[in-house]
User: Fold this.
Amino acid sequence: MALLDANGITKRFSGIVAVDDLSLSVANGEAVGLIGPNGAGKTTFFNCLLGIERCDSGTVTLDGQEITRLATYRRARLGLGRTFQRMELFAGMTVRDHLLVAERSRLGTGRLWKDLLNRSSPSAEERSRADHTLDLLGLADVAESPVEALSLGRGRLVEVGRALMAEPKLLLLDEPSSGLDAGETNALAETLRDVQAARGTAVLLVEHDVDFVRSFASRCYVLDFGSLIAEGPTATVLAEDAVRKAYLGETV
Ligand SMILES: Nc1ncnc2c1ncn2[C@@H]1O[C@H](COP(=O)(O)OP(=O)(O)O)[C@@H](O)[C@H]1O
Ligand SMILES: [Mg+2]
Assistant:
């Protein structure tokens, strides 16, 4: 049984069909790519999976449980993790504290606001979970640094770290390389592969960087104008004429 099973997802916005009858699955621990030109419907599809948008038809099943109409926070508790396309980090707060705040919101202990007001300190267990995650992401050396001191690439890893603190079964990544240079993109791809190997987290990756997708995803899906135009092993799919034409803008 698939970990994620999206079946026949359709989402319309006044007149346009942003996602048209899309079916997609991800197995436990699998790395899957979702690609397509700008405006193809990738982010809208993610939003339907996350419950940020309500799909017009179709069903979403996570780990055997139907979640199509569940609230976003309940999907998160069931193991659906995500990062944000625009970084949402707090200036002045250290890298470790960003992960600790994520941990508090996971536990739902209600201590989050006390933390922000500096009234309670994290337990040894919380600190150790945060430090393990920082190690895994290669951020241990900047644990005490304010987040704004980091490069864009390492800031992106902090976002991944915050998502990982919830121990998701499936992590949705929407264009994690946006704004990064080639070196930072390679480092990010490598770190994500390490995370996957160490934690066995399944990843569904939306990316415009084809090399990133090629090196990271064993399977991929291609959307164009909301519709699936190809799916299969990444190397095979990227070689298809229709994909090269739609996605890579090549004339074939
Ligand atoms: N909230 C919205 N209201 C109206 N149209 C939207 C909204 N969000 C996305 N769209 C439209 O849906 C289509 C798919 O957009 P999007 O999912 O952002 O594509 P992608 O992430 O693949 O670039 C686009 O035509 C976009 O303009
Ligand atoms: Mg998008």
User: Anything to note?
Assistant: The mean pLDDT is 89. The longest strand covers residues 16-26. The pocket of magnesium ion (ligand 2) is lined by residues 42-43 (CB under 6 Å). The domain at 1-79+169-252 is CATH 3.40.50.300 (Rossmann fold).
